[in-house]
Amino acid sequence: MAEKFSAPPAPIDFAAAKKSVRDVALVEALEKMYKSAKPPAETYEWSAEDQAKKAQLVEDAKAGMAFTQEMIEDTEKEIVYMRLNRTSREMSVNDMKEIYPDIAEEVEKEIENREWFKDTLNK
Fold first, then answer.
1. Which of 2, 60, 111, 119 has the fewest Cβ atoms within 10 Å of its own Cβ atom?
2. pLDDT in the model for residue 123
3. Are 97 and 104 in contact (CB under 8 A)?
4. Residues 28-84: pLDDT tens digits?
């Protein structure tokens, strides 16, 4: 887009406009205004402060991307582990305790505290 508008605009063909518009005086007034008006060129300068903010945003995004990539790799490893250790009818309770030690610990605490119906819908 910057390339498209980098060159000055093409000149306006007022003669063709005069032929196609009923009010020729309006076109002449616009032509007179166009030829007499010389507005200063508008240029945009990207401030150093804004450049620093944008650079920081880019760096934050790169750091976030690295973290996300790390999470994806960890999740893929976990999926492989879970596929290899699927529960089935042949799996014993001891196998379950080895595979899921956090759940086994929670179950043991519930048994010790006599919380028989802790995780049921009807409390």
1. 2
2. 54
3. yes
4. 999 999 889 888 878 888 899 999 999 999 999 999 999 999 999 999 999 998 898
Q: What is the pTM of this model?
A: 0.42
Three-state SS for the chain is: CCCCCCCCCCCCCHHHHHHHCCCHHHHHHHHHHHHHCCCCCCCCCCCHHHHHHHHHHHHHHHHHHHHHHHHHHHHHHHHHHHHHCCCCCCCCHHHHHHHCHHHHHHHHHHHHCCCCCCCCCCC
CA distances from 41 to 5, 33, 34, 45, 115 (A): 13, 17, 15, 13, 78
